[in-house]
Structures are given as structure tokens and as C-alpha cells.
Design goal:
The chain is an alpha/beta fold. It is built from 9 helices and 7 strands. Helix 6 links the parallel strand 5 and strand 6. The chain starts with 11 loop residues before the first strand and ends in an 11-residue tail after the last strand.
């Protein structure tokens, strides 16, 4: 009854921003749990191709370099996936950007870049891939859309990353609204809010892991298995009844950290 609870055998997945960091952790986890094919995207073609080659040691991983900061990029990715696949079982909207500047100097460019990639693109890419997701969905096995937010969308940190905070909070609420609409088609939408993981996005955790570990209730920063585990859970049968929820994967930073 429970043997295949976390199995992803035979499924096709797309992980945006999958060439590094959290996206790469998720792609690797999916391959380890039986996904038949993982597509990864990245704005930088060389980096995307290299990551796909590395991940292909564990299964079929295909690089589709693409800039998803514009709707043209989202359309081009949709056309490429549609030319290769009749259906898409799992979409992970992970590609994102951040921008930091003091309140008085925060630029419009830093606002638009972050909001476009972190909020606008996940919505429209899901909209464009809706037909492929619906083709994979059934009562027995829903299709899955997993948005990647941040604990900064749940709580405020001291950094002056205004558009990043706003975008990640918006994505959490957008997840709920999309879930309410798409669940009727057996497309289940959920969200992960990562905390401190070593990545180019979170250079503080990457460069000073011991310092960040001391501030984290669990006493360490996140590792690949932490992120992969959450993404596997939500994508698999184990997560079929979880709809519209955001799971903080953060060692307790959002909900179990005392002030100071």
C-alpha cells in the first residue's frame, strides 16, 4: 500500500533555474526517485548544459537554456517543451532574482526585474503550460506545480531587499489562488519557502555557513537532501492531498526562531 508513496517513476518534470542551487538540488532528487526525464532551464547556456551533463549521470536530464524574465522567453520554453512532450507531470517554478539597495536609492529597475521573474513569469509559464499539465493530470495521479518562494515571503529579515520580500510574499498568495482554480482539473499547486541554503542567491549561507547555522534553530544550514525531500514529497503520491500550502524548509527560521 505504501511501497510507491514517494516514487516518481515515469514522470516528466521541468525545473526552471535548475542549473544551480535549489533548482539543481530538486532536479537531482527527482532523478534519484525515478523521474524519467527532467528538463532544466537557465539563462546561461553554458552553465545549463554543464549541469544537465552532470545530472545525466543519474538519469535523463535535458538542458533548455532560456531567459524567463520576459513573456517571450516563457513562450519559447513552452514551445520547446511542447515540441518534445505530449504532457508534463511536474512544473517547478524556481527561477528567481534578488536585488538589494537602501530605501532611498532603491531603483525601479531593481523592482521590475525581481517582480517580473519572481511573480509574473511563474504565473504566465504555468498558464502557457496548462494544456500539457492538464494532459498529465488524473484523479489517480494529479499533475503538480511547485512554486519556490522564500522564508523572506513569510517573515522580514534585516536586508533591504524590498522587491524580493514583496515578490516572495506575493508568490505564496498566488500559489493559493492558482491552486483554487487548477485543482478542479487535478493540477495541484503548492509552494516551498526555503531558508538558508548555500547558493549563489544566498551567498551569506554559502560563504559563512557556521555563522548562519548559529542563528538557525536547528543549528545548521540546509543541505541538498532537505530541499530534494520536500520537493519529492510534494511531487509524489505522498503530497497529492496537499493543495495550496506553503512549506517552510528552513530549519525553524520562520516559525521557531526567538528574537535576537
Amino acid at each position: 500500500m505504501f511501497e510507491d508513496l514517494f516514487s516518481l517513476d515515469g514522470r516528466v518534470a521541468l525545473v526552471t533555474g535548475g542549473s544551480r542551487g535549489i533548482g539543481k538540488m530538486i532536479a537531482a532528487g527527482y532523478l534519484a526517485h525515478g523521474v524519467s526525464k527532467v528538463y532544466i532551464t537557465s539563462r546561461k547556456a553554458e552553465q545549463c548544459d554543464a549541469a544537465a551533463e552532470e545530472l545525466s549521470e543519474h538519469g535523463t536530464c535535458i538542458s533548455i537554456p532560456m531567459d524567463l524574465s520576459t513573456l517571450d522567453g516563457c513562450r519559447a520554453l513552452t514551445e520547446e517543451i511542447s515540441s518534445r512532450e505530449e504532457k508534463l507531470d511536474i512544473l517547478v517554478n524556481n527561477a528567481g532574482a534578488a536585488w538589494g539597495a537602501e530605501f532611498e536609492d532603491f531603483p525601479e529597475s531593481g523592482w521590475d526585474k525581481v517582480m517580473n521573474l519572481n511573480v509574473k513569469s511563474p504565473f504566465f509559464l504555468t498558464q502557457m503550460l496548462h494544456t500539457k499539465l492538464a494532459a498529465a493530470a488524473s484523479d489517480a495521479r494529479p499533475a503538480k506545480v511547485i512554486n519556490i518562494s522564500s522564508v523572506d515571503g513569510i517573515k522580514v529579515n534585516p536586508d533591504e531587499t524590498y522587491s524580493y520580500h514583496a515578490s516572495k510574499s506575493a508568490l505564496i498568495h498566488l500559489t493559493r489562488r492558482m491552486a483554487a482554480r487548477l485543482v478542479r482539473e487535478r493540477i495541484v499547486v503548492t509552494c516551498i519557502a526555503p531558508g538558508p541554503f548555500a547558493s549563489d542567491m544566498n551567498r551569506v549561507a554559502r560563504d559563512t555557513p557556521d555563522l548562519i547555522a548559529k542563528r538557525t534553530p536547528l543549528g545548521r544550514i540546509g543541505i541538498d537532501e532537505d530541499m530534494a525531500g520536500a520537493a519529492i514529497y510534494l511531487a509524489s503520491k505522498a503530497g497529492d492531498f496537499v493543495v495550496g500550502e506553503t512549506i517552510a524548509v528552513d530549519g525553524g527560521n520562520a516559525y521557531a526562531r526567538l528574537s535576537g
